Amino acid sequence: MNISEVERLGRSVRYNFYDIFKTVQARPQGGLSIKVRRDRPAETRQSGIYVWHHPHWGYFYVGIAAADNFTERWNKHIQKLLDQCTSAQQMANWQSFAQKFAAAGYGIDDLKDITLRFYPRPNPNSPTFKQELSDIETRIVRAINPMCNREYDPARPSATRIPPTRPITESSGYSLQGSFTHDLTTSKVWLMQELARIQPRMGTVYVLGSWFGNISLYMHLLPLLKTSKIINVERDRNMLAQSRRMLAHIGADNVEHMLADANDLDYRQLGPDGVVINTSLTDMPGRAWFDNIPVGTTVVMQARDHDPGRQFHSTQDILDRYPLTNVEYQGKIELRDPETEYNRFMVIGTK
């Protein structure tokens, strides 16, 4: 539905989420760290009407900013959407949507796909201005019936869509279903087989960007490796919660679930014979995760080509960026994800 057909609002501007926000990260102690861009568009300091949209979910919220509180309000909407409210009060409709969002495999990494459409409405210094904006908001909400607004009526047609599961794209693993595609399963079994030849007994293992905990699942079900403890490090609270439930169900009692950014780790639990595994090189920004690993630690790294993230085309590309003092294994396998053929590269060695 075109909102302009509902209300003649005049000029509008459309932003991608990260045109406004610099970063949104999960804090290890809970809650979110949300930073606004200093160079954000000037309109974000104006009053007006705004609409949130996601390509899979459609329009899901309409709101107003009657003063220069545009980004402050959006900050609270992010907390509500991810159901991690600290400075915001969670509302019933937002929470219902947040639960559906998470259940379908969506989370913090999907903020990048949200677009924010804003209709600037200058304040004429009228005492009735806020009420006028609110009346416009009410008419739009009645017409498109977005799920996060408190006036949402589930009995009426809505511009909000509910996809049953996250569509599997070429990166495969952002939904629970997608994390078990044949190519991703093959790559993790390959990792365990090669690591078992080099270091079959390990102390503490850090798995960075652990998603749904698949590596620790396979380590439990396919005991090629012996490890005293596995620490799944993931910044998406919903993925980590699903991992915790899945691993508890199979009785994997040596797994710790750590809500953290890998670049903030100090590896204090590593100890002798510890291992750090990172199969998400194409998706992980920064290099502090590598720089902070103690010298002498075994490191396992995987990357792939034909990926929209960081580009890797060989094992040498991995070693050029993350040099090891001793390389025990390097190789590649040819795989196919749901959309394309690609090569996955792996390096195992000592930092």
Biggest beta sheet summary: 7 strands, mixed
> Any guess at the CATH architecture of the largest domain?
3-Layer(aba) Sandwich
Radius of gyration: 23 Å
> Roughly how many Å apart are the termini?
55 Å
As residue ranges, the low-confidence spans are: 168-173
> What is the 3D shape?
elongated
How many alpha or pi helices? 10
Mean pLDDT: 87
Order of helices and strands: HEHEEEEHHEHHEHEHEEHEHEE
Give the tally of β-strands: 13
Assembly state of the chains shown: single chain
CATH class descriptor name of the largest domain: Alpha Beta
CATH superfamily placement of the largest domain:
Vaccinia Virus protein VP39
Number of domains: 2
Strand content: 25-35%
**CATH third-level topology of the largest domain:** Rossmann fold
Give me the side-by-side strand order of the main sheet: 9-8-7-10-11-13-12
Q: How much helicity do the residues have?
A: 25-40%
SSE-based structural type: alpha/beta
The gist of it:
The chain is α/β, with parallel strands linked by helices and 351 residues long.
